[in-house]
Amino acid sequence: MNLNLKNFKDYSNDGVIKVNKVFSKKEISLLKKKINLYIKRNSSKLKGKDINYINNQVNSIHLFTEKFFKTFSNQKKILDLGRFFLKTKPQIKHYEYFAKPKKIGMASPMHQDNFYWNLKNPNCFTMWIAIDKAKKNNGAVEYLVGSHKKLYAHTSSYAPGSSQMVKKLSSLKKKFKTRIFNLEPGDCLIHHSQIVHGSKKNISNYSRRGFTIQVTPKNVKVDIKRFKKYQKSLAQQIEMRENQSHGAR
Fold first, then answer.
1. Number of domains observed in the structure of the chain
2. Does a structural domain hold residue 248?
């Protein structure tokens, strides 16, 4: 990865940057294999906010308990990207999987990651790793370029795996240009914790799997008041979905 000052300026101005070929075909193949094995071993054990399904297929996983995923997420080249873009010593906060299976993958409403994370210092980013090709027709991530300078008001979305969405989206779309990046397996997006982003349903014949890693400065602080408020909203949405599921049986 030959990153330079222009790359940093583009990220700082736009809130998102694409980095090509961060991972080899071999690395992506191993990641894919480990995710499939994890689903086979653990999907029945994961509950509530830790996993989401669509038509009995995994749409997203938000908890990984096996050592491989911690080791993968803490490898040197990821931490190096953290140092480069954050300009400080980084740490890995969390990691998740978004499957968006072919023909049925759920949409993710437009949101800002830090509305979920509730960090006092928004100088953080998500590393979005493409496991499959990602394009407009299979639900690639859409960004409102330059929208990362402030945290906007959100409201409950009731969407599994992405429970909040920004208010007044139409006015934000008038203010900021929408951009979609085409990705090959192994390519990555580095996006700021406050850039507005989301994705449409996947109605194509191709899955759009991605593994995301949350990178923050060391000792980053959580806004406890905001965190508790968000967790309360999330718990209400999960309870509602579970009640609906039980009632449909």
1. 1
2. no
pLDDT for residue 164 = 86
Q: Please give the full DSSP string across 218-246, using - where no structure is assigned.
A: TT--B-HHHHHHHHHHHHHHHHHHHHHHH
**pTM metric for this prediction:** 0.92
Q: Does residue 150 sit within a domain? A: yes
Cβ atoms of residues 212 and 128 within 8 Å: yes
Which CA distances in Å does 167 have to 14, 112, 119, 162, 192?
A: 21, 11, 20, 14, 19
Specify the CATH number for the domain of residue 34. 2.60.120.620
Rounded to an integer, what distance in angstroms lies between the CA atom of residue 220 and that of residue 113? 15
63 is in which domain, residue-wise? 5-236
Residue 229: pLDDT band by 50, 70, 90 thresholds? confident
3-state secondary structure of 187: coil
